[in-house]
Amino acid sequence: MDTYFAPAEKAKGEELTAEIEMVCHNPVLEGLLCSVSGLLAVLNEHRQLVAFNDTFMQMLGIHDAQQAFGLRLGEALECIHAHDEPAGCGTTKFCPTCGAAIAIVSSLTQDRPVERMCALSANRDGQSVDIALLVRSYPIRIAGKIFLLIFLQDISRQQQRAALERAFFHDVNNMLSALVWASELLVQDNPSVLAQNIYEASLRLHSEVAIQRCLSQGDSSSYQPVRRPVNLKQILGELYSFFASHPAANKKKIEFPEDDPNISINTDLSLLLHVLFNMVINALEATGEAGTVKIWCEHKGGQMSFNVWNAEGIPQEISHRIFQRNFSTKEQAGRGIGTFSMKLFGEKILGGRVTFSTSQEEGTVFTFSLPFEEFSSPL
């Protein structure tokens, strides 16, 4: 038989039945098929299904396992190219670039685990549906014969989300770059307080999108900080303006320091404010109605420290995981990023240190400290 990639031969009749019986009566594989909650199948050396778990059978939409025994993976998953050649899955001109086919054949020929991502177009109710699968093929031997454990993970949503995020950040970044350029020209041609505010706001928005992209990717190296001297009074003024109408501050009081040292900080303002905003939001969310949150700064011991206090103590079992990504005491999806981002940006990029102290008696203080060398001399 002709093939574009993998061998075309299949096991049939008594040979296939014997392999199915061999696998189904193996206590180790039987236990594995019953215990693994994800998608798991077993293939013979001809790449045919000889066993699979209930989750795999549910995905196929069948109630009788006999319907799938002897099929190859692409045939069972209803790949739109599986029947392009007489010998089926693995032999068509599309198979040399199929992640599942590559993982399976490589695992068989090299006798080692192989993992690939498979972009599958499947026939579902007469329509072609794109599915992304992570396929891991693991060779085993039973009574001298080679079989493959096939672990499948549907990553379609993750792939779609990643593609949408890339497109979104790419398009928004292009638009913001144009906005920054136009606002800069506006300041040059028609200098005014309003033009300057528009320019600075566009810069801040551009930086915030870069911050969110960095968070989405979980890679701090993708953000390039822009350091410039920023007066401490300006930083506190930004905090005051931001929380003047913030929902988390509703019916709560924020106390700012009355006297600030006249110091300019050489830092990335957007990142610094991102850290401080999250510190204050966390404090406000932990504070009840009519409660107070306090903000103050300290410049001593070669450190400039920004401190945020609230009256609630953090339970010990929670305090150990405060900075862990995705950990949150809130039920809503998407929580657990604020404190993680404080560490990510405050420490890995700005070179500072984010810490907290807590007790039921004294409340909780989050502190962001930057080393003295990050600062210029007092003005």
From TrEMBL:
SMART domains: HATPase_c. SUPFAM superfamilies: ATPase domain of HSP90 chaperone/DNA topoisomerase II/histidine kinase. InterPro entries: HATPase_C_sf (IPR036890), HATPase_dom (IPR003594), His_kinase_dom (IPR005467). Keywords: Kinase, Phosphoprotein, Transferase. GO terms for molecular function: phosphorelay sensor kinase activity. PROSITE patterns: HIS_KIN. It comes from the Bacteria. This is Histidine kinase-, DNA gyrase B-, and HSP90-like ATPase.
